[in-house]
Design goal:
The protein is α+β, with helices and mostly antiparallel strands. The chain has one domain (about 10-425). Helices cover about 25% and strands about 30% of the residues. The chain has 7 helices and 19 strands. The strands form 3 sheets. It has a 7-stranded mixed β-sheet. Strands 6-5-7-4-9-8 form a 6-stranded mixed β-sheet. A 6-stranded mixed β-sheet has the order 12-11-13-10-15-14, with helices on one face. The radius of gyration is 20 Å and the shape is globular.
């Protein structure tokens, strides 16, 4: 059973969702382990205690529409693409109106979740991309109005231009699903506008997950996406996994207008299937593109003693502040809301305050700094980026640093802040 320590939390609301069927074994071994026969894998899976399906909200803040962290285990997880304020014909809704656009994004998100066996009551994490802090605030308000008071996802927000002219807000989500197919299931929702070659949502079965850090490529823009994707898929192959097990991609791009070209490249490298959901963030970095991946890891046999393994390709010099690959052999995850410094100040002061908050939150979720799996860092200038690199050395074991992406973006969702981050941790 998962170790849980929530006694120190005064404001915890816990919703337990049960009735999810036990997953069927796929017979696929963890990376580096020998392959088992289907019969042997089934026996091993049966001998492994299944996690009790649960969603738990830490320090739930109903008025703010969010929770400090959301812990989830025992469920298939839906990952959506970035959803924009478009009607079913692909036309922008509510030009110039943040309120109307937020409403349309939420309507589209609801439809996509429904198509993947989920709904708003099963939300775990929301990533919001907005033109301004005001729009981000409007999103949280409208989101909270659509949810029961006991349901509050972890939310991260960043200010960035979007891939459709006139769009003021977009979002992607992670939610639990009632469906279990034993493999990654890509879904296209006909109720929303989209590319018929790309999935609106992917259902990741119960099991493990692999996070691949953002891979940048400084080649000319016409070549960079293909090279970044090739490098990532090579890592997937080295892990003895398949492209069909890719759950989601996030692309950091030098121009949001490059989204269509990157989608075309994504479809090219995933032939014969719906391409995985894709999220875009415009960044202010020298590389034209950086792409990260989420990949499903089928599990068989007993859960490994070390539930997170940190790896780097042999051809890449290891970094003391992030790992290229985090292999998670468990479905017990904690999604941390985007953290901002509690007060304005120097870049160093803000970064240290955020990490101190993280240190306080993690034990309340049943995790710690040595079981971080995936980090996303957003900074507003190069100076803050350099300072982040220095400060991380004080908090991370260099052998256990999470997979990560770091992006300089146009702005933060809170005034006078230079840095925000969100985390996914494993609960050992």
């Amino acid at each position: 059973m998962a170790r849980r320590s929530f006694a120190a939390v005064l404001a915890v609301c816990c919703t337990l969702l049960t009735g999810c069927p036990a997953p069927k074994s796929t017979g696929v071994s963890a990376p580096g382990e020998p392959q088992s026969s289907p019969r042997a894998a089934d026996a091993e899976a049966a001998a492994r205690p299944a996690s009790e399906p649960a969603i738990e909200y830490l320090a739930l803040d109903a008025p703010a529409g969010t929770a400090r962290a959301v812990m989830v285990q025992g469920f298939p997880l839906v990952h959506t693409r970035q959803l924009l304020p478009l009607d079913v014909e692909g036309r922008l809704v509510g030009e110039g109106s943040a309120e109307k656009q937020v409403e349309q994004v939420l309507t589209n998100l609801e439809a996509v979740l429904k198509s993947a066996g989920s709904d708003f009551s099963k939300l775990v994490k929301l990533n919001v991309y907005a033109d301004s802090p005001r729009t981000a605030d409007l999103f949280r308000v409208q989101m909270s109005q659509r949810l029961a008071a006991a349901v509050r996802p972890a939310i991260s927000t960043v200010v960035t231009p979007l891939s459709v002219a006139g769009a003021l807000v977009a979002a992607d989500a992670v939610a639990t699903s009632a469906e279990q197919e034993g493999r990654v299931a890509q879904r296209r929702c006909e109720a929303v506008a989209g590319d018929n070659g790309c999935a609106d949502a992917a259902i990741m079965p119960r099991g493990g997950v692999v996070y691949l850090s953002g891979w940048p490529d400084k080649s000319p823009p016409a070549e960079a996406p293909a090279k970044a994707l090739a490098a990532l898929l090579e890592m997937v192959a080295d892990l003895k996994l398949q492209p069909a097990q890719v759950v989601q991609l996030k692309a950091f791009v030098d121009s949001a207008g490059a989204a269509d070209g990157i989608l075309a490249e994504v479809k090219r490298v995933f032939p014969g299937q719906l391409a995985p959901p894709v999220v875009f963030v415009e960044w202010l970095c020298p590389a034209p593109v950086e792409i990260e991946m989420v990949v499903h890891l089928p599990l068989s046999g007993p859960e490994p003693e070390e539930v997170v393994r940190y790896q780097n390709p042999a051809s890449v010099k290891p970094s003391p502040v992030f790992s290229r690959i985090a292999v998670v052999g468990s479905d017990r995850l904690a999604y941390i809301s985007g953290l901002y410094a509690r007060a304005a100040g120097s870049a160093e002061a803000q970064i240290r305050d955020v990490f101190e908050q993280l240190k306080q939150i993690l034990p309340e979720t049943g995790s710690d700094l040595e079981h971080l799996a995936k980090a996303t860092y957003y900074v507003n200038d190069e100076e803050t980026s350099k300072m982040l690199g220095k400060v991380r050395l004080d908090y991370y074991d260099p052998k256990r640093a999470p997979a990560a992406s770091l992006a300089e973006v146009h702005g933060m969702a809170e005034a006078d802040r230079a840095f925000t981050m969100d985390m996914i941790a494993v609960r050992p």
